[in-house]
């Protein structure tokens, strides 16, 4: 019984630690319950698609895909084009997704291919790959657009005549998804269509894990060598998992940015990789295990922390700027904490495994 | 093998067709609305473009509006020479690369819509 309790504690140590921090910080922040609930509804609908896109590579044993920034870049390219062509409304969202799909697929294939060359070191490789593709993205957006790729909308072009401005106003598609079907639940407004889309993605993930491809991915995630000897095309399946993740991330980034309403051309994609991974880790996921509850629970916990921490920081030390630093410190610190706790948990599991084997050997020896 | 290739080509074609449809139906066009007649110009005219909120336009003024898609309606309200308030609804189409100017003061004549090359 004691062991069971300890195991539950070890398995959920990350969400428990964060929950304790949140419970302590809420009264200090002075934010009302209604405000926090509304913020969580809005942030859950905004971020879920991106965070859920991380699940499939984890199932395939490829760890946390920091390469979702590649998908985010594809999504942003789609948004740049529709802003340039002045495509508005749902059609704008649809066209941005259509434009980003082939780019995300190509980047996903490239990413999957590179990650296959770096088996066992996927996470760090995907981080560096993100930096590399970010350089290519900047080259295309900063020099190619307006020079090689024709651009007509002067509002998004730099005054020198080529390159995209640092911030793009997405007024043509601002909250188009969120405001198309809005439900009023008490004092709260719920972006029903966005939540419906997130729900559809959850159903897709549940269904996908039961398919032949999903089972193959799970087998690869458990043991690559056994999967290979069972006749599974390991490399191809791993590439497919990254392609799916990248494509979902590109759609996720479009959903995210339509909610925000402005796009930071050179930074938006960098931020989401780190924040999405922080969210899923806080939800209790690890580099080897991730589920839908981890993703959704993690978003709530992480964003509660995100909303509360600047205010709590301000109340504690009396400076808004310090509060802002506090927020950044919390976001990155949480990733470090989650990874350290993950490692600690793994060591605890190994220790208990060893103890079990030793106990078995000892009891066998006594007989 | 051939079946897979055909399916892939079909998907790509469907995506292109869908893209073209989304481009045409989602494209925002600039529409200029002016209130400047040859013989008579109402002091104030009011218009509703595609069911959006009503906008007032003073005499001899020009406004820029954005409208999404191809088919549009404009509802114009003004007082004629005898002071009687009139409400006229007109339908028009926008085209790529064409600049459209609607003259509220000449809405009853054939010259209410001017289409020029951009």
Secondary structure layout:
The complex is a heterodimer of chains A (367) and B (118).
Chain A lengths: L1 H10 L1 H17 L3 H20 L2 H5 L8 H18 L3 H29 L4 H23 L22 E3 L6 H5 L1 E4 L2 E4 H19 L1 H11 L1 H6 L4 H27 L1 E3 L3 H15 L9 H26 L2 H47 L1
Antiparallel strand pairs in A: 1-4, 2-3
Chain B lengths: L1 H25 L1 E7 L9 E6 L5 E4 L3 E7 L2 E9 L5 E9 L4 E6 L9 E5 L1
Parallel strand pairs in B: 1-7
Antiparallel strand pairs in B: 1-4, 2-3, 2-5, 5-6, 7-8
In short:
The complex is a heterodimer of chains A (367) and B (118). With 367 residues, chain A is mostly helical.
Describe this structure in words.
The complex is a heterodimer of chains A (367) and B (118). With 367 residues, chain A is mainly α. Chain A has one domain (2-350): ABC transporter involved in vitamin B12 uptake, BtuC (Orthogonal Bundle). Helix content of chain A is 76%, strand content 4%. Chain A has 15 helices and four strands. In chain A, the strands form two sheets. A two-stranded antiparallel ribbon of chain A has the order 1-4. In chain A, strands 2-3 form a two-stranded antiparallel ribbon. In chain A, helix 3 packs antiparallel against helix 12, helix 5 runs parallel beside helix 7 (122-144) and helix 5 crosses helix 12. Chain A is globular and about 80 Å long. The mean pLDDT of chain A is 88. With 118 residues, chain B is α+β, with helices and mostly antiparallel strands. Chain B has one helix at residues 2-26; strands at residues 28-34, 44-49, 55-58, 62-68, 71-79, 85-93, 98-103, 113-117. Chain B has a single domain (29-117), classed as Sandwich (Immunoglobulin-like). Chain B is elongated, with a radius of gyration of 20 Å. In chain B, the strands form two sheets. Chain B has a four-stranded mixed beta sheet, with no helix packed on it. A four-stranded antiparallel beta sheet of chain B has the order 3-2-5-6, with no helix packed on it.
């Amino acid at each position: 019984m004691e062991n069971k309790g300890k195991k539950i504690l070890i398995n959920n140590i990350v969400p428990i630690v964060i929950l304790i921090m949140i419970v302590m910080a809420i009264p200090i922040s002075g934010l009302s319950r209604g405000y926090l609930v509304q913020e969580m509804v809005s942030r859950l609908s905004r971020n879920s698609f991106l965070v859920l896109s991380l699940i499939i590579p984890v199932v395939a044993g490829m760890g946390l895909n920091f390469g979702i920034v590649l998908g985010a870049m594809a999504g942003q390219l789609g948004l740049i084009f529709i802003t340039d062509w002045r495509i508005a409304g749902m059609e704008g969202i649809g066209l941005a997704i259509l434009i980003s799909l082939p780019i995300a697929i190509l980047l996903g294939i490239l990413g999957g291919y590179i990650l296959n060359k770096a088996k066992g070191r996927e996470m760090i490789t995907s981080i560096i790959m993100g930096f590399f593709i970010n350089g290519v993205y900047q080259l295309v957006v900063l020099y190619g657009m307006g020079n090689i790729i024709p651009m007509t909308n002067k509002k998004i072009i730099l005054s020198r005549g080529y390159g995209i401005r640092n911030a793009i106003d997405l007024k043509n598609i601002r909250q188009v998804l969120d405001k198309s079907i809005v439900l009023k639940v008490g004092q709260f407004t719920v972006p029903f269509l966005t939540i419906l889309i997130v729900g559809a993605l959850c159903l897709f993930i549940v269904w996908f894990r039961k398919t032949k491809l999903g089972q193959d991915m799970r087998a690869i995630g458990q043991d690559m060598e056994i999967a290979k000897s069972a006749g599974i095309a390991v490399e191809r399946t791993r590439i497919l998992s990254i392609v799916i993740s990248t494509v979902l991330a590109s759609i996720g980034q479009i959903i995210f940015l339509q909610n925000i309403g402005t796009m930071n051309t050179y930074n938006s994609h960098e931020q989401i990789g780190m924040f999405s991974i922080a969210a899923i880790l806080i939800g209790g996921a690890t580099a080897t295990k991730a589920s839908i509850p981890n993703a959704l629970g993690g978003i709530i916990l992480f964003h509660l922390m995100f909303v509360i921490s600047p205010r709590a920081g301000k109340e504690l030390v009396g400076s808004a700027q310090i509060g802002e630093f506090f927020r950044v410190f919390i976001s990155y610190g949480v990733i470090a904490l989650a990874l350290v706790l993950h490692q600690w948990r793994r060591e605890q599991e190994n220790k208990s495994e060893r103890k079990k084997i030793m106990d078995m050997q000892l009891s066998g020896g006594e007989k | 093998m051939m079946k897979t290739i055909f399916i892939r080509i079909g998907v790509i074609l469907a995506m292109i067709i869908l893209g073209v449809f989304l481009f045409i139906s989602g494209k925002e066009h600039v529409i200029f609305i002016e209130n400047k007649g040859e013989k008579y110009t109402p002091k104030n005219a009011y218009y509703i473009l595609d069911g959006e909120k009503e906008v007032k336009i003073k005499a001899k003024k020009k406004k820029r509006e954005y409208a999404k898609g191809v088919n549009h309606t404009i509802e114009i309200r003004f007082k004629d020479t005898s002071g009687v308030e009139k409400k006229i609804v007109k339908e028009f189409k926008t085209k790529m690369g064409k600049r459209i100017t609607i003259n509220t003061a000449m809405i009853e004549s054939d010259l209410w819509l001017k289409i020029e090359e951009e």
